[in-house]
Structure prediction request, 440 residues.
Amino acid sequence: MSTRLGRPMTPAFAEHRARLLARLGRDEAVLVFGGPHHLRNGDSEYRYRPDSDVYWLTGWEDPEVAVFFRPGARPLTMFVQGRNPDREVYDGERPGPEGARDRFDADDAFEFSELERELPRLLQGVSRLHYAVARDAEHDALVMASIAIAARAARRNGLSSPETIHSLSVALHEVRFEKGEDEIALLRTAGRVSGAAHADVMAATRSGMTEYEIEAILVRRFLSEGSTGPGYVPIVAGGNNACTLHYKRNRDPLRDGDLLLVDAGCEIAYYTADITRTFPVGRRFTPAQRAVYEIVLAAQEAAIAKVVPGGTIVAAYDAATEILTEGLRSLGLLQGLSLPAAIASNAYRKWSLHDHSHWLGLDVHDVGAYGRDGEVRRFVPGVVLTIEPGLYFPATNLDTPEQLRGIGIRIEDDILVTDGAPEVLTASAPKAIADIEALR
Ligand code: CA
Prediction:
């Protein structure tokens, strides 16, 4: 896989597995299944997007796959779609078990249908199994039956069999959370390409265009740069639609005098960016829009400054919240409350609506614990997260001042924790008012 810049864009899957091996004990194993392949409508299919765990471990991109991984001489066993000349006429060549061994470094590979026969044998000697229980009833039944067979064999041959099942969040997702250099490079590219798409949109948007035309501009940039596609359905929300946080209908016309909120990011080798920008459909922000924008931008920059080793998502949120709340008071809201009281009572949440951060990686809301034993996780170099404060004044909310109604503003960047200052991976998307108005 490569972009037109010619850089190698393949994640270092063998390094991922080495990192996971270092985390697992000799009697532990990880079992992951690919996600199901859904029909879109009738007999027409969605394009398959691999399960993030399967992909992170192996690079395998096709459905009907299971991966068994454990420390030892032959750590990686894959169960994959068998070759099928009739289906391959339609879907293209399948690697099959042979391809899994030759091209995906599997130590052993079987057809998926052989999992039921092979799993009891693989589970012997494993006492702690990492497996996402209760996600798929058929997989659960197969795994439980295999554990029962392995347990009967264990009584005869003295080998252990699974005594406990652990969520994938215990080991696999903690290793996925710590990004390697290969993954940081991919997230950096995803950020750069996605930011360029936002700049494209800022330059092209005109009153009278529709939200879907903006989506088309985004997707054109994503795909022409070698992206595997949007990391999530783009939100293109003109005017009051921005106050619907996960708006994705993207069908309305854009009107002069309104703002346009665009929340979109693309994947590079399935590693995604997540960017939001808000800018005027016309040439300039109105005074009210500008006032709100400056508050949200100042809040976002204060939060980004907190993304340093030893910092926390809570400290970043608190820094942004103080500025948002002070800003709401300057707009004439939250009157009669002191700043500490407006924060402590959560009164500001009426307009700020959501949290400001999540981890980022193969999943837009990426894996990794946010805290443990009541302690919030502290940032270390290599952590990647979003910072995305916003303020929203729905048109239907008649107790907010009239000039604010219909304004929804969110500003979101992707941040890498480094030894020094935070690295903004999405800096190619303009966000200073002067830079945005220069593009309009
Ligand atoms: Ca977002």
